[in-house]
TrEMBL record:
<dbReference type="InterPro" id="IPR001597">
    <property type="entry name" value="ArAA_b-elim_lyase/Thr_aldolase"/>
</dbReference>
<dbReference type="Pfam" id="PF01212">
    <property type="entry name" value="Beta_elim_lyase"/>
</dbReference>
<dbReference type="InterPro" id="IPR015422">
    <property type="entry name" value="PyrdxlP-dep_Trfase_small"/>
</dbReference>
<feature type="domain" description="Aromatic amino acid beta-eliminating lyase/threonine aldolase">
    <location>
        <begin position="41"/>
        <end position="285"/>
    </location>
</feature>
<protein>
    <submittedName>
        <fullName>L-threonine aldolase</fullName>
    </submittedName>
</protein>
<dbReference type="GO" id="GO:0006545">
    <property type="term" value="P:glycine biosynthetic process"/>
</dbReference>
<dbReference type="GO" id="GO:0006567">
    <property type="term" value="P:L-threonine catabolic process"/>
</dbReference>
<dbReference type="InterPro" id="IPR015421">
    <property type="entry name" value="PyrdxlP-dep_Trfase_major"/>
</dbReference>
<dbReference type="InterPro" id="IPR015424">
    <property type="entry name" value="PyrdxlP-dep_Trfase"/>
</dbReference>
<keyword id="KW-0663">Pyridoxal phosphate</keyword>
<comment type="similarity">
    <text>Belongs to the threonine aldolase family.</text>
</comment>
<dbReference type="GO" id="GO:0005829">
    <property type="term" value="C:cytosol"/>
</dbReference>
<dbReference type="GO" id="GO:0008732">
    <property type="term" value="F:L-allo-threonine aldolase activity"/>
</dbReference>
Length: 362
């Protein structure tokens, strides 16, 4: 991984992702956007409270609580909703089941009920068919492992209404909710109004060091602070991560609509290449999946070769799929990609495919 990041950092042009910064660059960036003569936080005051209020204002919630990790924030949210039932409606492709090592069960003692097996968030019909009561229904916006897909606004609101009808709370896994607004066609406040709790991430998309927030009612916030402490998340000082989160809200959040629009330009260009497929088409956010009919090892080698020879970073990391000879990567269209025209994308894609053909000779 470190070699890949070093190669990417040395490139003049980057299509997918953000140029890796050194620790010195991150510290310089931090000092440029904050008053470092102010006192730091001590167990969650100072700049932490500033960030919490900023998030609550953005989402239109009564309160928000800083967490060092999103996994911790989500365990607290699910525990809060377990008063009526120890079951939680989760998607098999959702973050809790795929990326959190079953923390909801191991740490919180909850049971998972499958909300739907379709590669999308649950619909109202899916929830109406659940055969047992659940305390919380989780929606991941967007559903990353289904290709960063989102429901329509009508589908989302109808599903949230049905969750209430079956006596459940609604929790949004909103690690990437910032980039969901263009497709849903609603503001962050309007989206957050549909849920009882919303988790947001500060390092995904916004470029912070780390950290997350859990937003909702004042009662949820009181509960969250107590359980954050019990989980070991009430850390003495976290101001570096907090300040980078505030900087991300200032600098990156306003640019996200541009990233989403340009992702569609990039995806259209990529889909014009022979054998190449994007998912979804068009992308719902500034991230989408790209499939190319070569093994992952060949594509990783070709991307590195293109970067080292031409100082152009295309995309990575590639993974083999269940379809033999076809690999997949996740594309992230950010600031560096805005200078790429459709013709630039096609040209770089053709060069990548030529490199793959040479590397994949029998």
């Amino acid at each position: 991984m470190r070699h890949r990041l070093s190669v990417m950092r040395a490139c003049d042009r980057i299509l997918s992702g953000v140029r890796p910064a050194t620790m010195r660059e991150r510290l310089t960036d931090l000092s440029g956007g904050a008053d470092l003569d102010e006192l730091p936080d001590y167990y969650g005051d100072g700049p932490v409270t500033v960030l919490e209020q900023r998030v609550a204002n953005l989402l239109g919630t009564e309160a928000a609580v800083w967490f060092p990790t999103g996994t911790m924030a989500q365990q607290v949210a699910l525990r809060y909703g377990a008063t009526e039932s120890d079951a939680v409606a989760l998607h098999p492709l959702g973050h809790q089941l795929v990326h959190e090592r079953d923390a909801y069960a191991s740490l919180t003692g909850l049971r998972a009920v499958t909300s739907t097996t379709a590669p999308r968030n649950p619909t109202a019909a899916d929830l109406a068919e659940l055969d047992e009561r659940v305390g919380t229904v989780v929606f991941e916006l967007p559903l990353r492992d289904a290709g960063f897909t989102l429901p329509t606004w009508d589908e989302l609101t109808e599903a949230c209404e049905e969750a209430v009808n079956i006596g459940a709370r609604v929790h949004f896994d909103g690690a990437r909710i910032w980039e969901s607004t263009p497709y849903l066609g609603r503001s962050l406040v309007e989206i957050a109004e549909q849920a009882d709790s919303v988790y947001v991430s500060f390092y995904k998309t916004l470029g912070g060091f780390s950290g997350a927030a859990l937003a909702g009612t004042a009662d949820l916030a009181r509960y969250a602070r107590a359980w954050r402490h019990r989980h070991g998340g009430n850390i003495f000082q976290q101001w570096p991560a907090v300040l980078t989160a505030l900087a991300g809200l200032d600098r990156e959040l306003p640019r996200i609509p541009d990233y989403v629009r340009h992702a569609r330009v990039v995806a259209d260009a990529l889909a014009a290449l022979p054998g190449v497929r994007v998912q979804p088409e068009p992308p719902h956010t500034h991230q989408f999946r790209l499939f190319i009919p070569y093994p992952a090892g060949v594509l990783n080698a070709a991307v590195t070769e293109l970067a080292e020879k031409e100082s152009v970073w295309f995309c990575g990391v590639w993974q083999d799929t269940p379809v033999p000879g076809v690999a997949m990567t996740e594309m992230t269209i950010a600031a560096a990609a805005l200078e790429w025209t459709a013709a630039d994308v096609i040209d770089a894609g053709e060069r990548l495919l030529r490199a793959c053909r040479l590397l994949h000779r029998p």
